[in-house]
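Sequence in, structure out.
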Amino acid sequence: MEAEGLGWLLVPLHQLVSWGAAGAMVFGGVVPYIPQYRDIRRTQNAEGFSTYVCLVLLVANILRILFWFGRRFESPLLWQSVVMILTMLLMLKLCTEVRVANELNLKRRVFSDFDPHHFWHWSSFADYVQCVLAFTGVAGYITYLSIDSALFVETLGFLAVLTEAMLGVPQLYRNHRHQSTEGMRWSSPGPAGTWDSRSPAVKASSDLLWDTQPQAIRSIKMVLMWTSGDTFKTAYFLLNGAPLQFSVCGLLQVLVDLAILGQACVFTRSPLKPAPHTAHPASTKAL
């Protein structure tokens, strides 16, 4: 009787935990962009945010959705991609509006849209939408023609998750090149912690609080947060039987996080070198 009574308690508890984990997977990846979005909207300054991050995540999640048609995986992982795509489009829309509003030379801005060197730096949000739709259409058509090829489907899956998994590599390389982890900030949504679109007043006040802790402690705490998030994600992949691509690339992300954590520990033993705070085209991570 006691076992049966305990079972009645464990079943709903297990269901609740499953729902919570699924919800974390669906919405956890976009949570870091909420303060970034609000900050850009409040300050009307998007210079510190690289729209190439949106490009990388849009490509990765579009490919992941196409992969789902060839090999079905858990619905939360599919909805995660849908939510991330919508979030990146919202970020692009806001950044475009802010940039256009701050652009003084209208004539130069309009004609730059036709310059290949200004790819993904357009003055109209509709141009981004058209580009995303064109990419989706071409990739979707190729997937439709090759959907019966197991090699194509598996390769598509690896491309999708590997693109996202490699987003921590630029930070790893940057730290190695500068022999320092300086510049990684809590306000950044991922391991490239080089974005800072805050107003001078907000930046000064938050940096004052930030600087009350030693650089080593700040860096280690931040990387531990990345590692815990990627570990949760990888464990979710393994426990829920996600396709091999998800588990392999999740483990790769954890290894990259551990490598950055090792850098943070090693570089504390030597003087820090000043590193430029420049935005990298692929400088964020998604849960």
